[in-house]
Amino acid sequence: MACRAKDPFKDLWALPGGFVGIEESLEECANRKLTEKTGAQNVYLEQLYSFGAINRDPRERVISVAYFSLVPFEKLTFEKQAATEKTQWYAIHQLPTLAFDHRQIIRAAHHRLVAKLEYSTVGLSLLPDAFTLSHVQDMYEIVSGKARDKRNFRKWLLGLNVIEETGGMQSDGAHRPAKLYRRKNPNETSLFR
Amino acid sequence: MACRAKDPFKDLWALPGGFVGIEESLEECANRKLTEKTGAQNVYLEQLYSFGAINRDPRERVISVAYFSLVPFEKLTFEKQAATEKTQWYAIHQLPTLAFDHRQIIRAAHHRLVAKLEYSTVGLSLLPDAFTLSHVQDMYEIVSGKARDKRNFRKWLLGLNVIEETGGMQSDGAHRPAKLYRRKNPNETSLFR
DNA sequence: GCAAAAGTGTTACGCGTACACCCATGG
DNA sequence: CCATGGGTGTACGCGTAACACTTTTGC
Hints:
The structure is a homodimer of 193-residue chains.
Chain A: E1 2-3, E2 13-14, H1 26-38, E3 44-51, E4 64-70, H2 79-82, H3 102-119, H4 133-144, H5 150-159, E5 163-170, E6 178-183
Antiparallel strand pairs in A: 1-2, 3-4, 5-6
The structure holds a DNA duplex (27 and 27 nucleotides).
C-alpha cells in the first residue's frame, strides 16, 4: 500500500500502480511497478482482472488491468522506499479505508488466490527457498482462513510430488527441529488436476 | 467472426470488437458489441483476459479487454448483418487463419470454458429454454472434446438440482421421444462446489 | 421387425476425512 | 521435567467411475 499525497483520496492507502508505457507489455509494466515498489524480482505474477467502471477514478476515465504477485517475504526490500514514499503492508483482514475501488481489487485477488490453493501449487511461491511443512500449512491456513488436519495436509502435500527435503533442519525454540523442504521446480507454475 | 475489409490482415477473419466509449463500462461495451453483431441480448457474458502485447496491432498500441459470451443458438440473429458485414461462425477446431492474436484469444476462451464446465453450470447458458439430457451431454462432449458415460452424466447433472422437467417431450426421428428439461434459475450464475 | 436414441442401477475403487499419541529440543 | 511444536498410521464413508440391457418410437 502506498499512501496518497494528493486528492482524490488524499491520505488514503492505495495499491501501487501506474500507466503502461507505450513500449512495454501489460505484464512488463506490472513487473516494473512491482520491482520499483518492493524490490521483488522473478516472482510469480498473474493478471487478475480489468476494472473499467466509468467513475472509478473521479478525475477521468481510467481502466486498470490489475495484476497480483506472490512474493516470499525475504524477497521484499521495501525499506528502501520507506523514506521517500510512504509504503506499508497490511494484513488482508485489517485493511484501512482504501482509495478508488482498490478494496474490491484486493477482494478479487484474495478470492482468486484462495481458489488457486485448492488446485495448484502456486501458493508455494509465497514461501522462502527452504521451508518446513508447518510453514506451508500455516500459509494455507492464513490465506484461506480455514484450519486443516496436520496429517492429512502433509499426506496431500507430499503426494503432489512437488517438494523435496533439502536435508537441512530448522531449530527455532524449545522443541524438536523440523525438516526443511524446497520446491522441486521453483519456476514451474505446476498446476495439477 | 467478421472478415476484415482493410489492412492490416485484410480478408482474414477477426473477432468482433471495438473501442470502449468514454461513457460505458467495459462490460457495457462488450454487451453492446455483442448485440450489434449477433442480436443476442441478456446472455451470459464474462471477462476473459486483457491482451496487451506491444505489437499485437501493427498500426498502433492497442490493449484489448476480451470478453466471451455463451449464447443459445436460437438467440442468434446474425442473418441481419450478413448483407452489410461479412459475419460467419466457425467450429472451434476448424478455425481459419485469424487476424491479430485472435487465435490466442479464442484458445484462452475455450480453455476457460472447458474448465468452467467442471465446476459450474454456466454451460447450460448455451442451451435453449427447453432441452433434453442428451442435448446437455452432447454440449459437454463437444466443448470439452471428452466422452462421458451417459448414466453417470445424468446422475451428476440431475443431482446438481439446477434443472427440472418441463413436462414436455421431444420427438425427432425414429426413436423414443426424450423428456424436456429447463433451468430452474436461468439467471443465476450457479456455481457449485 | 429393425434401426436409433432414451432411459435406467449396481458394484468397485480411490480419495478425502476423522482421529491421538510419541519424539526431539530448549530452558 | 516440562512446555512446545515436529512427526507419524489407520479406518471409514462418500463420491466418482465402470459397466449393459430394456423401452419407445418411425419407418
